[in-house]
Amino acid sequence: MEIVPHHDSLQADVNSLIIGIQAGEFSIPITLDEQPDLFDIEGFYRQGKGDFWVATDNGKVVGTIALRDIGNHQGALRKMFVHPDYRGKEHGIAHALLKRLLKESKERGFQEIFLGTTEKFRAAQRFYEKNGFEAIAPEELPPAFPRMIQDTKYYRLRLTRNEHLK
Prior knowledge:
- By secondary structure, the protein is α+β, with helices and mostly antiparallel strands.
- It is built from four helices and seven strands.
- It has helices at 11-25, 41-44, 93-107, 122-130, and strands at residues 2-5, 51-57, 60-69, 74-82, 112-117, 134-136, 153-158.
- β4 (74-82), α3 (93-107) and β5 (112-117) form a beta-alpha-beta unit.
- It is globular and about 35 Å long.
- The relative contact order is 0.16.
C-alpha cells in the first residue's frame, strides 16, 4: 500500500470509491454531480496549503483523504473514504491516511483541522474521536468551513495539543 498525491489518472477510481461508499453502502442521497470539488481537485483542494491524497494497493484505489486550506492556519479534512475490504486495524489504511494528512498539516503551518460527517458514519466518528478530534457544535465552525448538506456532526483537532496519533 502506498499513499500518493492525487493525479488525474486516478480520478475515475476515486469517484467510484467515494460515490460507492456514500450512495451505495450508506444510502446517502448524493450524486457525483453534487460534489463539484471532485471535478476540480486542483482548484478546490490545492489552493493555499491544501492537498488531496490517494491510498493505492497495487494500483487499485483503496482510500482517499483531502485537506482544504480555509485560512487563518485552519484546514478542513474532507473526502476521507476507505474501501470496505481495506478497513480495520489489520490494513491500517485509515490510520495511514490520517497520519499523512496531519503530518503535512503540521509541516504546512496548520493549527486546527475541522471536519464534518454524517450521523450514519458511526465508525468514522469513533475513529476521529480515538485520534484526538473533539465534537463541536456547528456554531463553533470557522466561517470559511465548507459545509455539506449531508453533514450533521462536526469535529475539531488542535494540532498544537495533539502531537501524536494513537
